[in-house]
Amino acid sequence: MTDVKKKKVIILEKTPMSEQDPEVRSHNFEEVPLGYTEEEAIAEAKRCLQCKKPKCIEHCPVNIKIPEFIALIAEGDFAGAASKVKEDNALPAICGRVCPQEDQCEGVCVLSKKGDPVSVGNLERFVADWERRHDAVVYPEVKPSNGKKVGIVGSGPAGLTVAGELVKEGFDVTIFEALHESGGVLVYGIPEFRLPKEIVKKEINYLEKLGVKIERNFVVGKTATLDELFDEGFDALFVGTGAGLPVFMRIPGENAIGVYSANEYLTRSNLMKAFEEDATTPVIRGKRVVTIGGGNVAMDSARSALRLGAKESIIVYRRSEKEMPARNAEIHHAKEEGVQFHLLCNPLEVLSDEKGFVRGLRNIKMELGEPDDSGRRRPVPIVGSDYEIECDVVIVAIGNKPNPLIQESQPDIQTTRWGTIEADEEDGRTSKKFVYAGGDIVTGAATVILAMGAGKSAAKSIQTDLLGED
Predict the structure, then answer these.
(1) What is the pLDDT at residue 372?
(2) How far is CA 15 from CA 46, 112, 282, 403, in A?
(3) Domain of 72: which CATH number?
(4) Could you list the residue range(s) of the whole structural domain that residue 157 is in?
(5) Rounded mean pLDDT of the chain?
(6) I need a surface site. Which of 26, 39, 57, 436 has the fewest CB within 10 A?
(7) Per residue in 330-361, pLDDT tens?
(8) In degrees, to the nearest 5, what angle opens at C-alpha 328 toward C-alphas 389 and 191?
């Protein structure tokens, strides 16, 4: 009797993930998605076609062996899957939550041609959470000391990635963090409901157990310069200080009481716990809050405003929803929670009362013209279409740029006209020997996973330059 191979049944719809009810979650800071159960994870993993030439790996900035870890999930080997992910990514619980997989690994999934792509991000999150909940963290073998000392400036995703890569290779690694808590944008920029801070702490603790040292409240450029760190015995330095300097619109009234940069608003909420009743660094809890911008940071701000007690939270964005840089999931969650959207609308002036407090925002309606340098259609004002939105808080979330402290204290490092450090995109090398850079300090504000990819590339360069090996 001839054996007949069973044809794989292709399931086109992804396994949905349970979430908090929008009416409930808009009043708390608990995480919105609740995660997969073991059965749901296995079901989703079995959708993977295990392509012979998987494009998903190529489109992952840190090149996770995606089909391999998914195959292990399908077999029920969750510990093995977690270990497989960590071969290439030291921060899987973070990436599984905040990376834009739809533009990377999931965006090239073969299944997306006829249905939903495999939920790579949800599966990555699942194995990381499973490992943590079951106290099953396996630490990789760390090579003996090679005698080389590397300093890392900034404990955001780029710096943490460099640290994780190099400590396994026997380097003596120290991270210098300006704030009192480690994690960079992961702790001050991303709200608790999207990335619980306990998870960030666990991921950082994992690196510390591998041997990474962290010095907090250490401002490189003030506490010590790069040259002074070299004098203290560091053989190489990586700069991953991000882009934390807020950009404003420079419109009349921006100095009114109740106008915040998204950076300040989110830092006070996320890091300083402004949502607590006895917070020492509170924010004005507006009843009608307007957020200017269309990216993930704008969505985070508008959704945080609801959780801080706003009756209405409004997004003002000068283009249409199609041009919004925010992830589709973040826009969807914001709408579910009741955030209002004023699209094709550009602020002209912040209006204030006789005491200097915000009372409104004057705007002009826009229409889309020809594409600009970004490839998106340029917004053009419609003459005579001015109108006002009554509000008591305005949050400006139109972008950030690098803090110039490193560049000002180290003039031999070449920078661009935008204030970013000039570094080779392939290897992270800067104009100063044995100084490397990556992440938002090089690219301007971008994604967590791109910063991690830059950190991984820089780590390879440091290893090559200091040890003469790749």
Answers:
(1) 83
(2) 10, 14, 40, 42
(3) 1.10.1060.10
(4) 149-244+402-467
(5) 93
(6) 39
(7) 999 999 999 999 999 999 999 999 999 999 99
(8) 70
Q: Using the Cα atoms of residue 110, residue 116, residue 118 and residue 119 in order, give the sign of their dihedral.
A: positive
| Boundary-marking domain end, from 370, 400, 430 | 400
Name, in order, each residue with C-beta under 8 angstroms of 373's C-beta and a sequence gap of 6 or more: none
Query: Does the pLDDT at position 2 exceed 70?
Result: no
12 within domain boundaries:
no
What is the average per-residue pLDDT within 447-467? 94
Q: 259 with 347, same domain? A: yes
Strands 172-176 and 213-215: parallel
For the CA atoms of 338, 342, 344, 350, what is the dihedral angle to 10 degrees? -140
Q: Which residues, listed in sequence order, are joined to residue 363 by a DSSP beta bridge?
A: 347, 387
- Cβ atoms within 10 A of the Cβ of 418, count? 10
Burial of 22 (0-12, 13-18, 19+ CB in 10 A): middle
- Quick check: 12 and 115 in contact, CB under 8 A? yes
Are 248 and 261 in contact by the 8 Å Cβ rule? The answer is: yes
Exposure of 347 by Cβ count < 10 A (0-12 exposed, 13-18 middle, 19+ buried)?
Answer: buried
Quick one: pLDDT at residue 3?
Answer: 53
For residue 8, tell me if it sits in a domain. no
Number of domains in the chain: 3
Residue 400 CA to residue 39 CA, distance in Å, equals 42
| C-alpha torsion sign, points 42, 117, 59, 150 | negative
Do the domain assignments include residue 311? yes
Q: Which residue has the tokens 């990556």?
A: 438
Domain end, chosen from 81, 100, 133, is at 133
Question: Cα torsion at 396, 399, 401, 403 (round to 10°)?
Answer: 40
Output the CA–CA distances (angstroms, integers) from residue 323 to 102, 112, 296, 363, in the order listed: 16, 22, 13, 19
3-state secondary structure of 34: coil
Question: Does 391 lie in the same domain as 409?
Answer: no
Same domain, 249 and 392: yes
Q: What is the pTM of this model?
A: 0.92
Residue linked to tokens 């590339």: 457
